[in-house]
Fold these 2 entries.
Entry 1:
Amino acid sequence: MNSQRQSPVYRSRILQPAPERQPKSHPLTWRLRDDGQVVDLKDYEAKEGYVALRQVLEAGDPQAVIATMKEANVRGRGGAGFSAGLKWSLTMQGPDMPRGYIVCNADEMEPGTFKDRLLMEQQPHLLIEGMVLAAFANNARYGYIFLRGEYVESARVLAQALVEARQAGWLGDDIAGSCFDFDIALHTGAGRYICGEETALLNSLEGHRANPRAKPPFPGQSGAWGKPTVVNNVETLCNVPAVMLRGAEWYQGLSGGRTEDGGTKLYGVSGLVNRPGLWELPIGTSGQEVLELAEGLRDGRRLKAWLPGGASTGFLLPEHLDLPLDFDTVGGEGSRLGTGLITVVTEEQGMVSLIRNLEEFFARESCGWCTPCRDGLPWAVKLLLALERGEGEPGDIELLDKLAADCGPGLTFCAHAPGAAMPLQTALKHFRHEFEQGLRQPGGQAREIPVAEGQT
Amino acid sequence: MMEPIQASNPQTIATDGFRLHPEDEAAMREEAGHYEQPQAACIEALKIVQRRHGWVPDEAIPAIARVLGVGPASVEGVATFYSLIFRQPVGRHVVLVCDSSSCFLTGYDQLRQALSDRLGIGFGETTADDRFTLLPACCLGACDGGPAMMIGDDVYGPVTGEDLPGILEGYP
């Protein structure tokens, strides 16, 4: 369905039709309607909605919720892959601790990623139920959905759903007669990719510039306004209700032996493929299987490289397509699963230009707090621009190697610069010849237009 | 630090010739009630001013600071950090063009060029009739519809040069 010429208004959509999405195999998307309309409270309640929450509140055992989350091994779907259950178990609570916060990281801004948008625009109550369950487990008193400012439709749908949930008694005082009280406010941002970093997000939430904070203390110890705070991604929180309803063993089994990780994942593809889009698939599905769902590359193009999960992941090659897309496997190949939404690069598309685009993004979005990031990334952009014009000097490529190494993990204040370094390093490793073509020489020029005229 | 003005004692806040609309002040106070500290409503307060005026003039900064009970420098620091807070006048419609990787790989350069040709402006500029301002934007999360762009609250994608006249017509 590439023929969207009549109406180029963008609509978020899942490409699996409803009969293919079943409760026991597609916990994130089985309720979504084929017409793309919002699953409202009535519709949600008719489809097992808030059943898990009622059961958990009746059982009244927060520690059991955390234990189940740990056993299910729900790994953070925002890209880091950290066990949500473990994060919850490290959150401070007790008679001497003030009740803290659940913050949903809905600042989806990782280039190539468009999954949380779908969940929020079409199925807001799943997220709300996940947040109330997280609040009960972590003894949180209040929740915030930190939503990026550009997601206007998500904001509209979530605001409406919060009103519905409050009226139905799923938010507020004494939820479902359990004496547990919790409410959620929608907090919309005003741009800047760095807000997705969990401690920068907390600074932004508190009304400061979005500079990251030092860790430790971790947000679970001292987060928003110094209170214990759990920050989880939208997709992570949307997994919670089904885990509570069907159990850790069922969740683990969803990956069907493909990987140690449990559950499903929203996978997607963008770039020059025939059918770009989103699918809910068992975690550990291979890149090849996802690309087949995207019906291959457009106009007989050939795959040169791919990013498995956004701009801050490392480039993989066609030979990596058969690997299961899980956190540890992709991590073992010098990349990261990240958000799990693939960006494809075709043979004709120049790596130097693409890397220049990526590093321009990271340089612009640096908060400026620490030196390697603030000064190193613009320097890399300058070198890449020269290589792109065929004006690179001897030593420039080695300098890029060094800049990438100096922006690596542990050398900067947060994960922003390491995220910028990973695609650069992997591109320099796999496609060094393209960078060498940009050195000053007769007729040298590394730039190739990403999409030739008339080929979109 | 200035004392915040209590809600029970409303008065018009005017700073350096800027007059905060009473409705806006009320909206800011309501937002501030969602948080442990009113400063958390800073971004929302800036957006409230922006909704009314189209942008955030310098004179609005101390006014917002007084409502939230913080120093003007805190508000200024926030106002200059976030890309969707505009510190100079913009056109009636702001066009955000996604310049991130997926759109870059599906025709961003052509879309930006077509927009520039059609509107006669580059990034950071406003048309002479104050109708459009053109800005680059971080990944709009519409990568399966790249190249994508946003006008006001509406997201478009995939957009080709031929689509532009019809789309732009909708924003007088």
Entry 2:
Amino acid sequence: MIASLRTLDRRRVAGYSLIALAALLVGFGSAAQLRSKLVTPYNRVERNQALVRSVQDLERTNAVERGRIAALRGEIAGLEGDAARRSDRTRELAQEIANLRAHAGITPLKGPGVTVEIGNGRPSPDGQIGYLATYQDVQDVVNLLFTGGAEGIAVNGRRITPLSAYRGRAGTVEIDDGPPLGAPFRIAAVGNQGQMEQLLGDGGNLGDLRHRQREFGVRFSFGRSPELRLPPYDGSLQADNAQPL
Amino acid sequence: MSDLVKQPRAEPTRQTHRGVTLIIVGTLSAAVAFLGVVQVRSQAEVVRSLEGQDNTSLAFLIDDLHRANDALGAQAGELTARRDQLRLNGAADADPILQDEGQRLRVVEGLVPVHGPGLVMTIDAPLTRLDLEDAVNNLRASGAEQMAINDHRVITGTVFRQDGSAVAIDGDAARGPWTILVIGNQDRLAIGADLMVQSLRSDRRVRQAAYRTEPDVVIRATVSERPFVYGTS
């Protein structure tokens, strides 16, 4: 009796296992089949893998170089500080240069200000890309903030300088020597909060962004902060072709 | 006896339970497998979508990153030399190093007149504030180091306001025809300028758009220094 029960149990376990195995196979198969219809065929994807690896390598190098520049600027400031303690003339010069560096954006800046958020909206069924935040959106907001008296601006932690330029594809922005930044974009500006907020709230400004906010749900919001801390610029600020007269 | 009576009634119930259990086990296994495959493939897909959409976009990005890394390398080299000089000679060399740095920064911030190789672009059209902001950004992205529009020095941060048919540049009204003086690497600038001129010529508002390279462009206009009121280091 006991032996027959054990045989029965073994059969039952074997049955469950077979069913589970079969179900697993069906599950794997159907999922793979379904996804293979949705995902780009792998051989097509494989073709740009070498390019993707190049981009990743270059982005790593970019981060290392920017870190090196930030460290060197810190070391130089320390050495200049040592020299300034030994001479009044050097101290005067160092103060003058500190002011120029602050305006160039290569030292940190803190103070009251506003932050603006721009993010992608809803993809449209007809394939339009108007829902993606663009570098022009960032450019327009930064220019408006300068119009409102911004003294320093950073986009996703990347400081804007007097030589800054924006480029990029929809949904990303490249600023100067930095890697591509992806949406959402957070633009922080130190300066006159009232003036900047007034311009941001004026429906006559940022026409394209507001239109796409209505049409595609592109996200656009802003608010004030009692104290913002902007990081220093960590890229190249060389202008070798332009020489003083 | 009662067991014998109950036995036939219990058997179908047990079989039903077994069937339900089998169905549950099977469904759960299939669901686990399905979700497993979907998850793995979705992660791979996310990585792919983050890393690039098509080869052309990636090629442009690689070009941009190469140029950026070259510029960063050159800047790091210049800073290394400056640091080493300060380390070697200390206070004795600090003043000339600071003076050089000051002059470089005054150029970058548009505070002093400058000259150098570059190009001159002329546009006869009723350009708006947005057109000028885009032109400045396009030229800057093409390597412009210093610029002036109709004798107004322009940096990132220069304020353009529409003032009727005129555009106020940092408060001074300006109107077309427009002359943009640009200093920078001529080869890079020419590539950007070609694209801009092509685009401008297809614009109905534009009566004329052209540029010429110059070995020595002189920009005398300067930007006024604005002291910080709200920001502190």
